[in-house]
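Example S7 (structure tokens).
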């Protein structure tokens, strides 16, 4: 009898210890190496923590200025997760190093994941979570802003007026009203852009391999083939993801696609640089094909994007050559950059981290 009660006591102790273990596990703080930190990242993530109260997400962020690359990946040693952005390098080689550092999670502070080698992540069981949507309005509004800046030569006009040159030569634009807008990719951002274009009085044609018939039914746009869109549109805006390989979107706009376009067409890209073959674009720009081109993203941006190079020349770079054209406006991958989007990015990133840590379903944030 005595033996029985001892065993029962031992069982109770085991239970208590086990419960403590579970509590301990729940309390484990997720250590995150936050790569490529800019002042604005720190502001929005710190503000969120202040608002929600310390410990809300049970995560510890260490802000690193370095971009994630092969050279910097080993900085992830001692952390559970890395938090990265669009211009960080998460290629197979880098994932390999992250795996050696015992990284279990990659938190993307963006929607696109073309910079992450998903196969390598699967191989090592590294989870990849993204921010599927933060503000499609931010991107669509930027797209219309920069293509209008290029079309109405506002970038030149501002400079001229500041130099007391009030002449209008070289500033002639075209109306958008009654023109045809071609939207390539009618997901969240493409839909917003279509609504903005409609607001300008444009007729909207769209192409998407997975059409959203609701948009057609409500009369917002009409789906056509890619070729028809390229042939008919006066303004083309790209909103598809970058997908490599067969049926992908790499060089969606190449020499042949440009040849199909109208003379004096307008083209805007706020999706991903390699959707447009930059060499083909430069050739066509030289021939005067475009009324206006506006690029927030472009091939070759990775070496410059988010860096201040104002004291340097940009030898042999695509960016330097694009800068030559007066009808072209360039911004540096900033379409997402609004207060609302930054707040949403901070919230979703931290929720993703907490869900991972607590073993909860991350929903459509999950990439791998
Ligand atoms: P989404 O996922 O809502 O829409 C993407 C659309 O592309 C969908 O309608 C889909 O059917 C279509 N699509 C999928 N596979 C395709 C293929 N192989 N060929 C052609 N179309 C295909 O994405 P969302 O939120 O509208 O974003 C679009 C893109 O914008 C993102 O992939 C990202 O690259 C870019 N982006 C750029 C930002 C910037 O700051 N410049 C910020 C946020 C997103």
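Recovered sequence:
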């Amino acid at each position: 009898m005595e033996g029985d009660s001892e065993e029962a006591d031992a069982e109770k102790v085991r239970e208590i210890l086990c419960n403590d273990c579970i509590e301990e596990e729940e309390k484990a703080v997720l250590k995150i190496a936050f790569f490529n930190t800019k002042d604005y990242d720190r502001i929005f993530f710190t503000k969120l923590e202040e608002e929600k109260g310390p410990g809300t997400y049970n995560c510890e962020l260490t802000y690193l200025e370095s971009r994630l690359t092969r050279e910097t990946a080993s900085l992830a040693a001692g952390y559970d997760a890395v938090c990265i952005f669009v211009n960080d390098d998460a290629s197979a080689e880098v994932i390999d190093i992250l795996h050696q550092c015992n990284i279990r999670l990659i938190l993307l502070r963006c929607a696109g994941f073309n910079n992450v080698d998903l196969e390598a992540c699967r191989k090592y069981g590294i989870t990849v979570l993204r921010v599927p949507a933060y503000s499609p309005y931010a991107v669509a509004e930027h797209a219309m802003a920069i293509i209008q800046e290029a079309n109405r030569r506002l970038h030149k006009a501002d400079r001229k007026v500041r130099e007391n040159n009030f002449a209008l030569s070289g500033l002639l634009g075209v109306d958008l009203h009654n023109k045809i807008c071609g939207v390539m990719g009618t997901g969240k951002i493409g839909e917003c852009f279509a609504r903005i274009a409609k607001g300008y009085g444009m007729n909207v044609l769209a192409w998407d391999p997975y059409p959203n018939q609701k948009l057609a039914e409500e009369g917002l746009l009409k789906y056509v083939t890619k070729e028809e869109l390229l042939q008919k549109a006066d303004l083309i805006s790209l909103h598809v993801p970058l997908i490599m390989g067969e049926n992908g979107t790499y060089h969606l706009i190449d020499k042949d696609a440009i040849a199909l376009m109208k003379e004096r067409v307008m083209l805007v890209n706020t999706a991903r640089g390699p959707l447009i073959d930059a060499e083909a674009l430069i050739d066509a720009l030289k021939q005067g094909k475009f009324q206006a081109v506006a690029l927030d993203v472009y091939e070759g941006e990775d070496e410059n994007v988010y860096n201040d190079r104002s004291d340097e020349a940009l030898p042999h770079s695509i960016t330097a050559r694009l800068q030559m054209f007066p009808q072209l406006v360039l911004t540096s991958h900033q379409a997402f950059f609004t207060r609302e989007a930054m707040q949403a990015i901070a919230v979703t990133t931290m929720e993703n981290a907490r869900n991972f840590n607590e073993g909860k379903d991350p929903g459509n944030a999950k990439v791998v």
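Notes on this example. The chain has a mean pLDDT of 94.
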